[in-house]
Amino acid sequence: MEQTPIHPLADGAQGTLFRFATAGSVDDGKSTLVGRLLHDSKAILADQLDTVTRTSIERGFGGASGGIDFALLTDGLRAEREQGITIDVAYRYFATDRRSFILADCPGHVQYTRNMVTGATTADAVIMLIDGRKGVLEQTRRHLSVVKLLRVPHIVIAVNKIDLLDYDEAAFSSVAAAVRAVTDELALGAVHVIPVSALAGDNVVGRSANTPWYTGPSLLELLETLPGADEVDRAVEDFRLPVQLVVRPQGAVAVATDAAHAFRDYRAYAGQVASGSVRVGDAVTVTPGGASTVVTGIDFAGQDLDQAIAPQSVSLRLRDELDIARGAVIGAAGTLPAPVRDLTADLFWLDPQPLNPGARVLVKFGTSTVQALLSTVTGRLNLDTLSLETASSLDVNDIGQVTVHLAAALPVETYAENRRSGAFLVIHPQDGATLAAGIVTVAGVPA
Amino acid sequence: MNAQPDLTEAHHSGALASASINPSAHRLSQLDVLESEAIHIIREVVAELERPVLLFSGGKDSVVVLHLAAKAFWPGKVPFPLLHVDTGHNFPEVIAFRDETVERLGLRLEVARVQDYIDDGRLHERADGTRNPLQTLPLLDAIAAGRHDAVFGGARRDEDKARAKERILSLRDEFGQWDPRNQRPELWNLYNGRHTVGQHVRAFPISNWTELNVWRYIEREGIVLPPLYYAHEREVYRRDGMWRSVGPVSAPRGTETVEKRTVRYRTVGDMSCTGAVDSDAASVAAVVREITVSTITERGATRADDRISEAAMEDRKKDGYF
């Protein structure tokens, strides 16, 4: 076992935050890999390790050799430990000197679509684990298809159990070639393929001497250096700020009384920059209404900023008094699309009750929640081929193509153009359950 | 930076905070990202729900959430009241801090007292004397009485394995119960706080923060905490591997001997089950240094109630605890 901690005192305080999800089945060694990353980056503290070691011994895991069942670190619920399964996405936190990480550990075998979607919508990268002895399985294809649809910026394939392949370069190369055949077919662009042994620690934290033929980075080195989704998207996506609420304190100011008068007429539009960036003096457009105005100030709790970038939460002051309420979208001038009431979307159906065409639901785009009619199901995606099959309803974990009619026009964009403006929730109008994750494929009535 | 008395006047320390926001670099630090995420969550809940309330104990995590709320609505006031579930086993300096904070910000504080429930027989004192598990009933009654449909809390996912699986917006039924097997998927930054009559939503804006993030943020923002978070001399005795404070509800038994030591608290809860750690960290910077080299989690070090079993927290949450 490689025991050397690389960054014993790291807290990544000066570094950025990087979110990644892990996918793969238990048999691929995912829990072991997660445990290895946490253990070797010193994210597991003594009392947690004691508890896990004690439980491991009670369960007969490892025994005298001192083996640890790393799955116990993330399987936090009573039912999970009793049944030896992972039920839900678990979030874990660790840091190196360069960066802090949020790891969404997504179980692969139960409700995999639901878990993958939950983990992948916020991920900067997805690590897909493959058992090097088994190669690319049907499930690998499915997971990769979900990752492709959700536009996760980086895909890392960890070819695990390289120790059981005797660190053989040819064996790794043949798995890597099979992986690349699939990712090419899915047009996934660049993927990183790394030979690892989660159990032995090869190429997880440090580079392994057992794989001299592999010249790329270790898994952790790669995670430390990949650009985050915000950095990637910011370069190509226009400025958008969905208005959460209007800050208009009138008399009820919190600042010292001698300064209170300065805020008597204060009015600003609070929200998180969803994409792009904005500067004081920039021309902007507001929907609904389509009015043009200019940003006169960017406030962050009393600080005057010159610029705000995604994903900062700020308040914008505008030159003109406009009728702006929650649900409005402020965007870079001339870039906001005309609001539409019809769209086509891919839905990741997550509810046990199937979707039948004609369902009346609520949809939430940004800060707008409106009624909607899911008029027709035009097909279900075959994840193995990424082709559309005939279907008239969607079951849980299906991904399907649906036409949606909105009760009010919204400035939606396709998910390919803008990940924030093109993503939405489907919500049950009575009990409020989240029924589906939606991504817009066509905004407006298709030509 | 200990000289920052007012949560809402964080702009006076703007020089410090703005140094970390450097848009030209086009990279936000992790604290900036976590702060913006938390403010986004707080604003969403306030915009979409009717009557939110913030659980405020005077502990560092709830102080940080209050600070974030003050920033979210600046220059307006924090638009919701605070709720403290008072076990009656409080550290007096924490109660003093709580009351000063409420006064300074001009907020309304609701207090639900475990002692009232014990006095009239609705709750019974436990054999082990700890009152943490007894907080659930007064909490649920206070939520119902205040008709609160959203309850902010300072819980973090890194505290506990059950919390690691809870959503940022967590739906609770009329008994306050958490159903870990039936949680809503949480997608992108789109939060769904819809609920039916009788249900409410618990909202955890700092879910993704670690203990170290919280301390780094306290340092950066100059947030004031109750003094017992910093090293001080205290009369203590050893029990279950922790230093317990000598007080009205916490007295040594048998062979336990009282000694004077320099300690601090990593968490602040019910005095009967919260332990102190040996420490000479008398400033925020010293605490940050101490945590970066600590080999024990904050709950492992200081919470007797979480040592009962591996699923202690999950069991309490299923019963309506925060």
TrEMBL record, chain A:
Its EC number is 2.7.7.4. Pfam families: GTP-eEF1A_C (PF22594), GTP_EFTU (PF00009). Residues 15-231 form the Tr-type G domain. The keyword Transmembrane does not apply. Keywords: ATP-binding, GTP-binding, Lyase, Nucleotide-binding, Nucleotidyltransferase, Transferase. InterPro entries: CysN_GTP-bd (IPR041757), CysN_NoDQ_III (IPR044139), G_TR_CS (IPR031157), GTP-eEF1A_C (IPR054696), P-loop_NTPase (IPR027417), SO4_adenylTrfase_lsu (IPR011779), T_Tr_GTP-bd_dom (IPR000795), TRAFAC_GTPase_members (IPR050100). CDD domains: CysN_ATPS (cd04166), CysN_NoDQ_III (cd04095). GO terms for molecular function: lyase activity; nucleotidyltransferase activity. NCBIfam families: CysN (TIGR02034). This is sulfate adenylyltransferase. It comes from Cryobacterium breve.
